[in-house]
Amino acid sequence: MPVERLRFADHLTLRPAPSGIDAVTRLADFAIITYAVPPERLRPLIHERFALDTIDFGTGEQALLSVVPFRDLDFTAAAFPFPKWRFGQTNYRVYVRDRLTGEHCVWFTGTTLASWTVALPRYLWRLPWHAGRMRFDCQLADGRYHHYAMETRARWAPASLQLRSVDAAAQHPGFPDEESALVCLTHPLTGYYYRRDGRLGSYTVWHDQLDLHAGELIDARFGFLDRLGLVPFAEQAQPYSVLLQPETEFTIYLPPVAVSEKG
Asked: In this structure, is residue 149 part of a structural domain?
């Protein structure tokens, strides 16, 4: 389904007050590496309730998949601010639209978490989260990365990545305009996924409008994308877009919920 004209004014919301086990966290070294791929590669992964967001920039209809690595600096429950955890995380997500509500959202194909706390979302809430070891090596100057490296050792999704910032403005051909691209790629607040028991699950987050800048990919090897044929290794050197932000804040509303497949 082609992405229509989108405006932040229609999607920015006041932060719902967190409570209970809702989580708050500062994220560092936040990156969004997006690939444009033929829709037929992604369609089998997505529940029929959701339409793929698509664009066309001269290569035919393309769907959008992002790899999103970052470091949680102080993940904690809003009502119980201690203890706090630090760990690396990488989300693999596809941009979709809920056919029932029209909402732009993301479909999580899975997450790698570098912490023993992965057991809680994986086994208690049945999220498609997987354990791994992650190492970040990032060097900043004046808010720009002259070196950004991430390595993940994991059975499910081994990965290595090298990026750097560029001075040029981000460009996203195929969208109605640049703001529409940024709303779609950076501001989905609801995520859906297949739970580990096969049911449809969902959770929501909140963050303010992000202040990302453009980057370029030096090298990438995402084992999960290659293994499923979503983005083979030979194609991973040519992302559609790279966006970077040194630090931001997120609120995650918990627990996740199982939802009806029909709304």
From this structure: yes
Q: How far is residue 74 CA from its own chain's centroid?
A: 19
**What is the pLDDT, as a whole number, of residue 262?**
65
Within the chain, which residues score under 50 in pLDDT?
none
In this prediction, residue 81 carries a pLDDT of 73
Distance CA 117, CA 257 (A): 19
- Structural domain harbouring 135: 8-258
Rounded to an integer, what distance in angstroms lies between the CA atom of residue 152 and that of residue 226?
15
For residue 191, what is the domain's CATH number?
Answer: 2.40.400.10
Exposure string for 243-263, b = 16+ CB within 10 A, e = fewer: bbbbebebbbbbebeeeeeee
| Within-domain flag for 151 | yes
pTM over 0.90? The answer is yes
Q: Based on the structure, what is the number of domains in the chain?
A: 1
